[in-house]
Amino acid sequence: MPISTSRRPRRSASRRFHGRSDRFTRRPQRRKVQQPSFDPTRFINTNPVDLVQEVYTPEHRFTDFQLDEQLQKNISFNKLTSPSPIQDQAIPFLLQGRDLIGLAATGTGKTAAFLIPLIERTLHRHTGQTLILTPTRELAIQVESEFRKLARGLGLKSVTCVGGMAIRPQIQTLRRHNHFIIGTPGRIMDLIDRGNIRPHKMTAVVLDEADRMLDMGFINDMRSILTMVPKERHTLFFSATMNDTARRLTEEFLNNPEYVSVKTKDVTDSIAQDVVKYFPDKKLDTLVTLLGGPAYQRVIVFGAMKRGVETLTKQLRQAGIKAESIHGDKTHGQRQRALQNFKDGYATVLVATDVAARGIHVDNVTHVINYDLPNTFEDYVHRIGRTGRGTKRGQALTFIPHSNT
Fold first, then answer.
1. Closest Cα partner for 354 from 299, 285, 300, 396?
2. CA dist 401 to 127, 296, 398, Å?
3. What are the chain's domains?
4. pLDDT for res 349
5. In this structure, what are the phi and psi dihedrals at residue 160, rounded to the nearest 5 degrees?
C-alpha cells in the first residue's frame, strides 16, 4: 500500500483508541512467525582468533573542529580525549551539513559522532530541531543521557518520546521548544498524529541503528516520518549493516550523502562458539547445570517468545539462580529495573527475547546462550555480539536437541 504524502496521515483502525489510553500505543508491524531454519553447527568455533586491535591514528583532534568553548569542555569532561574512527571521519562532513551514511557497529562512538556536530550546528541556529529515531526505548534513553552530558551548560532542551511510558508527561514536555527529540518510530508517529510533534519544523533527522528498526518492522513509520519532514533537511543514517531495503531508503531520502564505514571485526570469528546437546525432557536441567559453573558470571539467555522467556526466568529462580527477564510485555520501568539489576550484579542471568535485547549494551557479558534457536544468521550474529565486546573474550552456546545431530 503506498505511503500517504499528506502532512497528517489518517489514523488506522488499530490506532483509534490512542486518545483514550496509552495502552494502545502503536507497535511496530510484526514480522510473520517463521520456523527457525538456522543451523548453528555450521558456526562451531572452539578456537576463535585472537583479536588484534588495530591502532587507529586520527587525522583530527577535537580541538581541530573549532567547536563552541563549552561544548569542547564537555567533551574533555566526558573523557573523550581523541576521536574514534567514526568520529574522526564523520564529524567534518556533519559540521558542513552534509547528509551521511555511517556504517559502524555499536560501541564505536557513533552516538557522539552525530551528537557533537548536531549540537554545534544547533548553537548557531537556535530554532533548529533535530529528530533522532532509535529502535528501542533503552537506546533512546541512552542517547538522551549522552546528549545531556555533551550539551551541559549550553541551554539546549531535549525530550525522549518512547512507548511503554506514560504519554502525558511527554506531551507536556513537548509544549516547550525542544532542540532534540529522541524516540522510537511508533511513539513519534503517535505524537505527530496528535499534533504534539510538528514534523515540518525539523531541520535534521538521525536514523540510529537503522537496520534494527527495519528488522523490527518500523519501515512504514520511518518512511512516513521522512516524507513529512522538509526535504531541505540534514539526514544522518547510521547502521551496522546495509541490506537492499536500507539501501533503497537511503537512495530515496538522503541527498548526495557522504559514506563512512568503520566496520571492524567479524564477531563470528572472534567469539568461541559451540552447541549444547540436550534431551527434550532435560533441556531445563541442562541449562541449570551449565549456569552453575563458575565461569558463567554474567549471562544472557535468549528465548524465542515472550511467554517462554517469562516462564524460563521463574524456573531459573526456583532453581536458585538469580535471573531477570526482559521482553516486550514488560513496562518500561520493569525493563529498566531488570537491566539495572543485571548490570549491577544482583542478577547473573538476563533472559531476553531478540526484540527486547535490541540496543542493550552491557559490559563484561561472559556468555550468550541461545536456549531457543534464532530464526536467521543475522539474529544469531546480533545475539552473540552481546559478548566478546571490544578486546574481551566471550563464549556463545546454542542448544540443539540430540535428534538434530
1. 300
2. 59, 22, 10
3. 40-50+266-404 (3.40.50.300), 55-261 (3.40.50.300)
4. 97
5. -105, 130
User: Hey, which residues does 258 pair with through a beta bridge?
Assistant: 100
In the chain, the amino acid numbered 345 is G
Confidence band (pLDDT; 50, 70, 90) for 263? Answer: low
Q: Which residue has the higher pLDDT, 95 or 24?
A: 95
Q: Give the pTM.
A: 0.71
Taking the alpha carbons of 158, 223, 135, 306 in that order, is the dihedral positive or negative?
A: positive
List the grid coordinates of 99.
Answer: 547528509
Condensed to tens digits (0 to 9), the pLDDT of residues 185-200 reads 999 999 999 999 999 9
Residue 352 β-bridge partners: 302, 326
Q: In this structure, what C-alpha cell is assigned to residue 97?
A: 551539513
Element (H, E) at 273: strand 272-278
pLDDT for 45 beyond 80: no
Answer yes or no: is pLDDT of 11 > 60. no
Average pLDDT over all residues of the chain: 85
Q: How far is the C-alpha of 339 from the C-alpha of 360, rounded, in Å?
A: 8
* Cβ neighbours of 79 (radius 10 Å): 6
**Strands annotated E in 47-171:** 100-103, 130-133, 158-161
Q: Is the dihedral of CA 59, 234, 28, 311 positive or negative?
A: positive
95 CB-contact burial (10 Å; exposed 0-12 / middle 13-18 / buried 19+): middle
What lies within 8 Å, CB to CB, of 102 at 6+ separation is: 86, 90, 110, 113, 114, 236, 237, 238, 239, 260, 261, 262
